[in-house]
Amino acid sequence: MAKSKISPLTRLINFLFSPILRAQIVKEILCTLRDPRSRMSLIVPPILQLVLFSFAVTLDVSNVNIGVLDMDGG
């Protein structure tokens, strides 16, 4: 019997959208959402990061040292 030539990309797509993998992903999501501690560990860190990074990161540029190197020689 000759094996059919299936590209690696097609194999990956078939694997990612397989019913078995989809069922495993749904099972893990439901299991994680049932546990209150897991639920909090999914929700609280992103909220804290949003709050902390909004104060830490600004787009205001001030007090920046700039150097210019003239390699023209003339």
Task: Count every beta strand, where a strand is a DSSP E run of 2 or more residues.
Answer: 0
Which structural class should the secondary elements be placed in?
mainly alpha
* Biggest beta-sheet profile: none
Measured as a percent range, the helix fraction is: 55-70%
**What's the helix-strand series?**
HHH
- The CA-CA distance between the termini, in Å, is 76 Å
State mean pLDDT (0 to 100 scale).
85
Strand content: under 5%
Regarding quaternary structure, how should these chains be classified?
single chain
Spatial shape = flat
Alpha plus pi helix count: 3
| Low-pLDDT stretches | none
The Rg value, from CA coordinates, equals 26 Å
What does this structure look like?
There is one protein chain. By secondary structure, this protein is mainly alpha-helical. The protein has a domain of 49 residues. The chain is built from 3 helices and no strands. It starts with 7 loop residues before the first helix and ends in an 18-residue tail after the last helix. The model has no long low-confidence stretch (mean pLDDT 85).
Short description:
This protein is mainly alpha-helical.
Features:
74 residues
Topology:
Layout: H1 8-16, H2 19-34, H3 36-56
